[in-house]
Structure formats: structure tokens, C-alpha cells
Automatic annotation (TrEMBL):
InterPro entries: DUF2442 (IPR018841). It comes from the Bacteria. The keyword Coiled coil applies. This is DUF2442 domain-containing protein. Residues 7-38 form a coiled coil. The keyword Coiled coil applies. It comes from Euhalothece natronophila Z-M001. Keywords: Coiled coil. Pfam families: DUF2442 (PF10387). Gene3D superfamilies: Uncharacterised protein PF10387, DUF2442.
Length: 122
């Protein structure tokens, strides 16, 4: 650094770009590994269960999902996985939830999440 001016070599920029590319590739690979292959409704526990290609599962109470709170068990059982493996869809409820959001504890839009917090459900 000379007179508070930082010099960046072209080589440093190239290394930084390559690191960013590698990080993006790893992130994409990890997203693919978390691709859902099955989803079902467990009426005994009132939970939606998502199964992933790596054999892991994620469960959440159906009442947490935006658009699912007044659904019948029959409607909840009609859950479908989107073609990308990154979403859940209920045709008869016109409800959709993103799996990456669910994994982060986000069960709907901001207003929905505020309501869940107000009711102390999350």
C-alpha cells in the first residue's frame, strides 16, 4: 500500500475469481445433493416429511406451512415435489413451499412468519 492506495495485481484478481467459481460449483453440488425425491403427509403426527437423495429426511408440522393450516388430511396427503426437487406443491390448496426455505425455518412469506411468531408457534 502506497499513500493509502492498495495495489491489486491481475494475478490476485484471477485467483479470487477462480475461488469464487469453485465456491459456486460446490454450492450448486450441495443443492443438488439436497434434492427431494419423496414427500408425504404423516396424519398421526400431523407432519409433512421430505426425503432427500442422500437418504436424509426433514419433517415439519403441517400447521406451520403457509396455505396448509385449514387443509384436510386428504388434501395434505396430495403433496407433490416440483420437477426441480426444490419445492412442494398442493394442487387442491394452491399452495407452494420452497424446500431450501423450509430447511432454514421459513414456512411462508414475511407476514406469515410474523403471525407464527406472534402465536409463538416458532
Amino acid at each position: 500500500m502506497v499513500n493509502n492506495i492498495k495495489f491489486i495485481s491481475k494475478e490476485n484478481n484471477k485467483d479470487t475469481l477462480l475461488q469464487k467459481i469453485e465456491k459456486a460449483r460446490k454450492n450448486k453440488k450441495s443443492q443438488l445433493e439436497r434434492k427431494a425425491i419423496n414427500a408425504k403427509y404423516d396424519p398421526q403426527n400431523d407432519q409433512i416429511i421430505i426425503q432427500f437423495v442422500d437418504g436424509s429426511e426433514f419433517r415439519f408440522n403441517s400447521q406451520l406451512g403457509q396455505g396448509l393450516q385449514s387443509a384436510t388430511p386428504e388434501q395434505l396427503a396430495e403433496v407433490e415435489i416440483t420437477p426441480s426437487g426444490q419445492g412442494l406443491h398442493w394442487e387442491s390448496l394452491d399452495a407452494d413451499l420452497r424446500i431450501p426455505d423450509l430447511l432454514q425455518g421459513v414456512y411462508g412469506n414475511q407476514k406469515w412468519m410474523s403471525e407464527l411468531k406472534r402465536k409463538k408457534l416458532i
